[in-house]
């Protein structure tokens, strides 16, 4: 499968999150601890929003392994962003090519995924035919992840993010069962419009891939007043990751099965239940 990271909060250099932590995403590309595969070397991607842009994210993707890509290191040392995605890929069967690397972009939206649609080759035609014809030419690759994204856009991502993702997941499950695929969906998904991040953890079998979110900054500061970088970030800074970036006690929380986390969450709870909408 894959490993991914979503950051939202105080503008930081990408390098500070992608490379510097003890168990950074770049480290996970070579030595993941919780993934199906330890190595995620089938390409990578980063997507970021700037504070002075038009609201559309910039995306950089490559088929090379993240751990030795000099261009990624160069960009990460010079790009500062308040909200960005990063993804390291382990292909589940689709080709290793730039158009299959995450995150995917459409307008103001970014999307990335870890998991798979089981027997995707059997379901692919019917799934693609459900994508809005206006959106169909936007799909450039051959992954189930990209099809899931454009299904979510088709099902109303602009109006209701959790609802659109629930309708996408419900459609995949309904179609899978029609084709005799009893447990069709495995997903941890992140999606952003540049203002908020929604992160979903769900699988048809009830045993989803790992997903963690950081504790509220003020709570971690109280636990670790001597940690310098915690004093430099805003209270609403949060990170969602496939696996923790380090072992700082009190920093990481596992997102429960069948849940959605929203960042920034404000005074609301950090997550709420998520279930597919069968339609």
From TrEMBL:
Presence of the UniProt keyword Transit peptide in the record: no
SUPFAM superfamilies linked: N-terminal nucleophile aminohydrolases (Ntn hydrolases)
Superkingdom, natural source: Bacteria
Swiss-Prot/TrEMBL keywords: Glutamine amidotransferase
Domain spans labelled Glutamine amidotransferase type-2: 2-244
PANTHER family: GLUTAMINE AMIDOTRANSFERASE DUG3-RELATED
Name this polypeptide is given: Class II glutamine amidotransferase
Organism whose genome encodes this protein: Streptomyces racemochromogenes
């Amino acid at each position: 499968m894959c490993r991914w990271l979503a950051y939202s909060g105080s503008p930081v250099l990408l390098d500070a999150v992608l490379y510097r932590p003890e168990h950074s995403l770049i480290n996970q590309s070579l030595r993941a601890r919780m993934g199906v595969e330890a190595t995620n070397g089938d390409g990578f991607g980063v997507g970021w929003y700037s504070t002075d842009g038009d609201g559309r994210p910039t995306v950089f993707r490559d088929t090379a392994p993240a751990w030795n890509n000099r261009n990624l290191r160069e960009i990460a040392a010079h790009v500062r962003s308040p909200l960005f995605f990063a993804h390291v890929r382990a292909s589940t069967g689709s080709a290793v090519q730039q158009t299959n690397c995450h995150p995917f972009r459409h307008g103001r939206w970014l999307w990335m995924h870890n998991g798979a649609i089981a027997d995707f080759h059997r379901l692919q035609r019917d799934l693609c035919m459900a994508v809005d014809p206006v959106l169909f030419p936007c799909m450039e690759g051959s992954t189930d992840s990209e099809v899931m994204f454009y299904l979510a856009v088709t099902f109303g991502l602009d109006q209701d993010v959790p609802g659109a993702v629930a309708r996408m997941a419900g459609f995949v499950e309904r179609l899978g069962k029609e084709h005799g695929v009893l447990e069709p969906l495995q997903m941890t998904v992140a999606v952003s419009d540049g203002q908020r991040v929604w992160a979903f953890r769900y699988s048809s079998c009830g045993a989803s891939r790992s997903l963690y979110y950081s504790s509220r900054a003020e709570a971690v500061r109280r636990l670790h007043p001597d940690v310098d970088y915690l004093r430099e970030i805003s209270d609403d800074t949060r990170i969602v990751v496939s696996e923790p970036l380090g072992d700082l006690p009190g920093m990481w929380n596992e997102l429960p099965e069948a849940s959605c986390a929203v960042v920034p969450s404000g005074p609301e709870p950090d997550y709420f239940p998520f279930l597919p909408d069968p339609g």
